[in-house]
Specification:
The chain is 42% helix and 8% strand. By secondary structure, it is mostly helical. It has one domain: Arc Repressor Mutant, subunit A, CATH 1.10.10.10. It comes from Streptomyces tabacisoli.
């Protein structure tokens, strides 16, 4: 008598090690996603997504209607951030997602330059 697999058992359950979700793959060094990087699905992602793992498909479905940050994807999927980053790398390599890197913080402002500009504007305004 053969037992049928439990339909309610998800691949991401505690019984399945996380390396199974990523097929033992590590994050490639050229795919270091920041927490605030924004992710969205590519236009033709639906047709190529049939061969994806359930977790990768879930990630793709999450970002299909707009941009989500990497941290938000991890929160919605309840997967560790490292696993989400590996799944995103797989999806990006397959051309299924687009990633917008976060805008870098503004550089320090030269206070002397700003003061000189303000002084020049004040002199011009007040005719001094």
């Amino acid at each position: 008598m053969s037992e049928e697999p439990d339909e309610g058992l998800e691949l991401t359950s505690p019984l399945v090690p996380l390396f199974v979700i990523t097929n033992g793959r590590a994050l490639p060094p050229d795919h270091q996603y920041a927490h605030t990087a924004l992710v969205t699905a590519a236009r033709d992602a639906d047709t190529a997504a049939r061969a994806l793992s359930p977790e990768a498909r879930t990630v793709l479905d999450l970002v299909a209607n707009g941009f989500l940050s990497v941290a938000e994807v991890a929160g919605h999927t309840h997967l560790p951030l490292g696993i989400v980053r590996i799944l995103l790398a797989q999806l990006e390599e397959g051309g299924l997602i687009l990633v917008r890197k976060p805008i870098p913080s503004a550089e320090r402002v030269d206070r002397e330059l700003v003061s000189a500009v303000l002084d020049g504007l004040r002199k011009k305004r007040f005719g001094a």
